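Colleagues,

Please find the record for the three-part complex below.
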Amino acid sequence: MVNEKVLIKGNYAIAQAAVNAGCQCYFGYPITPQTEIGEYLSGKMQELGRGYVCAESELAAINMVMGAVSTGVKAMTSSSSCAVALMQEALSYAASDELPVVLVNVMRTGPGLGYIYPAQGDYNQAVYGGGNGDYKIIVLAPSTVQECIDLTYRAFYLAQKYRNPVILLADGLLGQMMEPASFGEYPYPEVDVSSWALTGAKNRDARSIYSVAREEKKQIQHIYDLHKKFDVITQNETTFEEFNIEDADIILTVFGSMTRNIKAAMNVLRKKGLKVGVFRPITLSPFPHKRINELASRGKDFIVVEMNMGQMFKDVKFAVEGKVNVDLVNRPCGEWLSVEEIVSSVEKIVEGRKQYAASV
Amino acid sequence: MQQVFSIPKSMKKDFKYTFCPGCDHGIAIRLVAEVIDELGIREDIISSTSVGCSVFLYDFLDIDCVEAPHGRALASATGVKRARPDKFVFTYSGDGDFASIGLAESMHTALRGECISSICINNTTYGMTGGQLGPTTLLGQKTTTSPTGRNVDYYGYPIKIAEHIALCDGTAYSARVALDTIPHINQAKQAIKKAFQVQLDGLGFGFVEILSSCPTNWHMTPEDAHKRVREEMIPVFPLGVFKEVSKDGN
Amino acid sequence: MGKIVIDDSRCKSCYICTMTCPKGLIKKSSKTNRLGDYMVEFNDEKGECIACAMCAKRCPDLAIEVYK
């Protein structure tokens, strides 16, 4: 019955997907709008004889994850925006230590404490990181409850496959909404961790996992190696979704749950005669720069629609290398941009571009 | 002739301590290694160290070790223990790490009664960064950030770590020892062994605070530094066992 | 009767051992290490060492082996 559809809330879907993926330990601290993940798992993990700690802080929670995953098991924590800010130090360590940490961020509004309205303001925090040094995190952005499940599975797999921290970047809307979804079975093979996991120095040399580097040459090489690894990740794991791209003149670019209204907006705009397509990065990091650049080379303009002040907008601008127009339709947080708002904003932009073209 | 004192088997082959001359870290790590040898647990250990002079434990001990960010050794160790309850887990950190930046993690690990053993080196200063005021800096003590000496108005009081940990219900063993004399060194080893044993017996959190010298940052000869441990530290941080839970639950 | 062997590569010249030996058998040497510090040497012409190992137990650098 694993393929049966169930009506389920995004947060519960993420939690149950983690259980299915074989997550052995969960460590967390409550914060709205992701608290259901910890609540759900508190009972579930005990029932299954797995590890669960109501951590004293988010700092402790993510460091518990680091300790747990260093022994080769799958483990995760979940949190939201301002509390994910507290975890940035550990993410930098985990990236350098090459520890397969899985972190779920169900975004709320910032900066500061902000509030519990949904928002997409942590794009920069997730993709560029708030930790120190040259490191990169894999960032996956689901747009539906079904994808919350699928990408939770993928997060655990990629984390161990590449020994790199992974962030699942959901938002309050996805976390709190109910939608039909099916869990299926964890679709990935188990990754062999025996070459590096800490299990006690029995019949082998002692192992240590650390980021401190007293020798300059070693540190330089380590940073090069981390980035070479991420080049491989970029090559193999960059994923995105496209709708009506081929004949499109304008490509609406979105991530996460903003995708939901954008497809409706695309259909309305098409009926009005505008050739509009949609491009959605599923991996925000690695970001599909190459594909966006290809589309730009074919003369397609971009309009980025997001619930922040233009964070992914900068990456799209960077990707098109000035070849085409890139505009922004946005709101910082709160109620998602409606189909009508998106349609009228896009029409205004298109009109503006026409007038500009006529004036030069 | 028979060798009657040698390097413990759990030390790494050809290790070289990178501590300053006269630093008590060397003795503390040797005692830990001797206890590991005597309990026969080397192959089951996953240890966690965080930031400070203590971080280099993995350079010296032939055991699996994961590094944690500053202050998070106990959180990391909790993760390890929950993931692998069958392994022996211990942390080794300084007073700044354990009782300042990591106080919440340390205290809560004790309160949860995690079966983890923890060694804390108290040398009344931040050694690695060059001798600043730390959570255990004594009243009157001059450091680079208390140039006229620690006064209460400005800096508040030093923390008595072992007593605080003893107050936590999940603590099975909490003691304070020193390394300034041979009898104290012998007592320290016994305390470390007990803090390890309570984990093996599943009784809860085992803790030892070790009063140590830092000749470099105290600007003293190693022998004078030990004299200071005796004459200035022990009166403020009394040696002893502050909590001991035995197998029958008393 | 006992004897000790000092590993010069580990010794950091902290001199704790020189003050610990109850018989005063460990002394500053005239030799210096690569940092220019005087090293220590064990000199037991009269066979006084009883292998009490106090020097080794207080040596922070595990530089002393004791034999009996």
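Chain A is about 45% helix and 20% strand.

Comments are welcome before we finalize the supplementary table.
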